Amino acid sequence: MLNKQVTLKDLARKLRLSVSTVSRALRNVQDISPETKKQVLALAEELNYEPNFIAKSLVNKNTKVIGVVLPVIASRYFANALSGMMEVADSKGYHIMFCQSDESFEKEELCIKKLVSIRADGILISVSKDTTNAELFLKVQQKGIPIVFFDRALENVAATKVTVNQHHGAYLAVEHLIARGYKRIAHIAGPKHLSIAVERLNGYLDALSKFNLPINEDHILYCEDFENDAQEKIEQLFNMEDKPDAIFAVNDASAIICIRYLEKLGYKVPKDIAVVGYNNDPTSEVVSPALTTIQQPSYEVGKLATQLLIDEIEDELTPFVEKVLAGELIIRSSS
Amino acid sequence: MLNKQVTLKDLARKLRLSVSTVSRALRNVQDISPETKKQVLALAEELNYEPNFIAKSLVNKNTKVIGVVLPVIASRYFANALSGMMEVADSKGYHIMFCQSDESFEKEELCIKKLVSIRADGILISVSKDTTNAELFLKVQQKGIPIVFFDRALENVAATKVTVNQHHGAYLAVEHLIARGYKRIAHIAGPKHLSIAVERLNGYLDALSKFNLPINEDHILYCEDFENDAQEKIEQLFNMEDKPDAIFAVNDASAIICIRYLEKLGYKVPKDIAVVGYNNDPTSEVVSPALTTIQQPSYEVGKLATQLLIDEIEDELTPFVEKVLAGELIIRSSS
DNA sequence: CTGTTAGCGCGTTCAC
DNA sequence: GTGAACGCGCTAACAG
To answer: Within this chain, do residues A110 and A137 fall inside the same structural domain, yes or no?
Structure first.
């Protein structure tokens, strides 16, 4: 049953032609008598011939495969980015082969080795949380395989990077709250070692400064594990004399938890207190009241990163660029 | 810059050995003097040698690539299935290459051609909504490439299939409502041409029969576009004399819409009326009251389908099987 | 233990 | 216009 696949040789034998003639006829190259060309095409169709990509790759020295390494596919953000990648790759005749690092550096290394082994023409990567070592990526580049970082990039690697401006998104969110008249805006911040969390925090701080609002350190809650200590933190926030009148949370999940506890404590959202999240998770639409949030441009990140990677694959002299995309404010009823 | 990749030949030349000796040393095969083996390994490490999978594939007649064709990746269900696939594939040394059909038969055909061209060792597919023609799949099978259908299978193709028992999930949901004492259970049904919708409907009907509850045709609303005509349909449902005391919806989105309108009409969920959905979407946890629903075994479907496919790849005599997995009832506060 | 030979399926000279 | 020969990087069979 194995190896039922038709090859050029099979076609050549049946047609009493040479392999190279058949090859040329199929690829529409050089001068071929229209007669034989027709015959070849007919037989190829009849026998359901499909060119062997593997063999072609070996000769051409390219595989038309783009490797994608990302932390986890079961996430709206990355799934959307991947869709964007597939769209561009498809239109340019590339295939996507992707691997999950599961946020582990060792797995990431395995993924990359695998992609190098397959001789992917280029690699798109969003690094895992505990990736700090640049050496691995430099080695890949030395092999002549271009790498483009998307979403999460590594500082100390010279490469094309497509990221999202978290600072700007946070700024938009807070600016919106200020425009609505809220003045005492608290922030549920993420872990201090997470760069996206820090950027959002800075966007929050800069928006306050810009509009000459005082910064109250007690209004910033750094949360490692908000799901579990939310109640405590929120109570603490509302036991101060300078109670906030709005909350900007580092992500939708935290924002939703806030809404829950606030209602438990008897506050009305958004009348007594407004809440804004970040990510535009599907859940943000459904929660009541529907959550104002920031939509990440994940699809666009995927498209752009892939476009830039293909540019580098097809012209090695393409210079590295760093693109930063912005998110978009989605206004709903929680603010 | 291109083709910086180290080959066996490079190693052999530097070591003044033959290519085959180097190959054998690297693969730990046959008897090799420990001396030369050490040398080879050392140099390979130093030069960062990675075997060329492409070349290996050409010789071995297998690529260790599993092709996956699915309607859309940006869906919790398929993303989870894909995660399951990757786990099994990884552990068996296979790579996943996937394509989206976007629910279009033409795109699906392109995906398959592509995978055949790449000489994938096997294909996992969840067919698009408008796929009815089996010919394409038969052709692939004739080429000796095994196909396993997951989630959505094609009736008239003999192949291994891993699907989900929608009937049973619906039965569980309705049984649960009955156990809670609800007796007049309505059903928001999906389009009649969608097999999963029909199966869920049948599960609903069978549960009612099983517990000797009367079937009221007016309690079944067939919805093509529930998002837009929900209000009308629900009002119609509650204007009858035989008002329902519970609703089983064909999916979570519909269930959530129901909850919204019911509350607008002044009904309390679940006191006045219970609601159960289907899918365990992330949204179902967040909506208030949290939705009782059915968890699809998507991850398990992915794992099992991949396992069975690999069995067929590695032993062509493996007989086709059809596996049907069951969902799980998740009880929350809406019932 | 190691080298030589052949060939996987295809593209690319270079002849005729 | 067409064919023969060679090579891509690697494995496998056969010698020595």
So the answer is: yes
